[in-house]
Amino acid sequence: MEEIKTLEIEDPIYEETYTAHIQKNGAAWIGWIPEVPEVKCEEYTQEALLKTLVKDLHEALEAEEEAWDKQIEEDSKAGRLDRFAEKAEENFKAGKYYEIEDLQKLLEK
């Protein structure tokens, strides 16, 4: 096995950058992304490996997003988010909120 190479892969849809590790292993190349453990692959060329890593990364991120959406929908239907909505409404009625422009100014500091 050769030395592990590290490079960055950017997912343009999710606008995140991930670390990819690639390594020549005999006649093939293996690669993985530590931040997304389910993304591991093997190809016969480095170019093919990088394409597969990008594709598999995007698919894993989509699956994660779908799982989150499903969980939020289930939690909402089950009433598990009601207390947060009630608290937000209480805070709004009590004047405990920021206008978007003011909040943006606070975050810029």
What does this structure look like?
This protein is α+β, with helices and mostly antiparallel strands and 109 residues long. The protein folds into two domains: 5-78, Double Stranded RNA Binding Domain (2-Layer Sandwich); 81-109, no CATH class. The protein is 49% helix and 24% strand. A hairpin with a 4-residue loop joins strand 1 (5-11) and strand 2. The radius of gyration is 21 Å and the shape is elongated.
Short description:
This protein is of the alpha+beta class and 109 residues long. It contains three helices and four strands; from the N terminus they run ββββααα.
What is the CATH class designation of the largest domain? Alpha Beta
Tell me the distance between the termini: 49 Å
- Any idea what the shape is? elongated
Q: Strand-residue fraction?
A: 15-25%
In N-to-C order, the SSE pattern is: EEEEHHH
- As laid out across the biggest beta sheet, the strand order is 1-2-3-4
Count of DSSP-assigned helices: 3
Biggest β-sheet strands, sense, barrel: 4 strands, antiparallel
* Average of the residue pLDDT scores: 92
**Count of beta strands:** 4
CATH topology value of the largest domain: Double Stranded RNA Binding Domain
Question: What is the percent of helical residues?
Answer: 40-55%
Stretches where pLDDT falls below 50 for ≥5 residues? none
Under the CATH scheme, the architecture of the largest domain is 2-Layer Sandwich
Radius of gyration: 21 Å
Please give the domain count. Answer: 2
Question: Helix- and strand-based class?
Answer: alpha+beta
